[in-house]
Amino acid sequence: MAHTPTARLRQRILKGLAPILALVSLAACSPQQMVMRSVADELASQGQSAENDLELAREASAFYLKFSESVLRPQPDHTGLAAAVAGGFTQYAYAFVAFEADRIEATDAKAAQRLRERAARLYRRGRDHALTALELTRPGFRQALANPAAQPALRTEQLALAYWGAAAWGGMISLSKDDPDTVADLPLAIHLAQLAWRLDPGFGDGNLASLMGSFETARPGGTRASAEAYFDEALRLGQGRSAGAFVAKAEGIAQPAGDKAAFLDLLNQAVAVTDAPGSPLALSNEVMRRRARWLIESADDLF
């Protein structure tokens, strides 16, 4: 009998949970804190698994995020799990909520607005997990972040927290243009991204560079030349393997400039990106290829 999508999802979840359940079964003979730490380690690694089926990823994400959040709650300083949860909420908001809002905007503006409000809440949730972990592992971090002259040093294990915190913050701000208090936090989000950039400009094979480019286009006083340099660095670091780098430059540089030819060229390069078997970029690339195809179809309305 052929497996239904629901059966496939159940099998995938049970397979992923097998090592976690094995750890939980040790609770009777192990200290609870040690067991919970091991569960958190396992969940953090599960969040890095390769997947290119968007529907399966969407269906599994809610379960993974809720379960991971419950494990994170009693140990919010677990940097690996906090980063995975922050990243999970950020990616879910972008790929499955905000994108759907963009897609239906022309036919149902009210529904699109509701989706954007939900996406903003999900971004906030991801940001808060990242900032909480950063504060707990480096007391005084939030206060230092509010000081533009302060440059609190991040440790390598905090880099993903800073990246996902900044990305979630930026996403939340982009969807909250009618909320002056949220928009006023843009310098804090940029400062957080800059701290990550100081530690490792190559983080995420160009993902951080793309984020820096997006912030450069959004910040007061930002320049197109500087933004383009960041996006080009993202393309260099991605080495043709990251569809997101092409989409980011298309939306961040070509579209605002009214350059339809460059816009379409970059998006077609994104669609053409192929993934090696088991690539950790498989899911994010499929998300960005889907967005690129939609933008290509919408090009006449955008220019």
Describe this structure in words.
This protein has 303 residues and is mainly alpha-helical. Helices cover 74% and strands 0% of the residues. It contains 15 helices and no strands. Helix 9 (186-199) runs antiparallel to helix 10. The termini are far apart.
Present the secondary structure layout.
Layout: H1 5-24, H2 32-46, H3 54-72, H4 79-104, H5 109-137, H6 141-145, H7 159-174, H8 180-183, H9 186-199, H10 207-218, H11 224-238, H12 243-257, H13 260-272, H14 282-297, H15 299-302
Helix pairs in contact: 1-2, 2-3, 2-4, 3-4, 4-5, 4-7, 4-14, 5-7, 7-9, 9-10, 10-11, 10-12, 11-12, 12-13, 13-14
Which key phrases capture this entry?
303 residues, single chain, globular, 0% strand, mainly alpha
Concise account of the structure shown:
The chain has 15 helices and no strands. It has 303 residues and is mainly alpha-helical.
How many β-strand runs? 0
Q: Note the run of SSEs as H and E.
A: HHHHHHHHHHHHHHH
Q: Biggest β-sheet, characterized?
A: none
Rounded average pLDDT: 87
Structural class: mainly alpha
Sheet-strand content, in percent, reads: under 5%
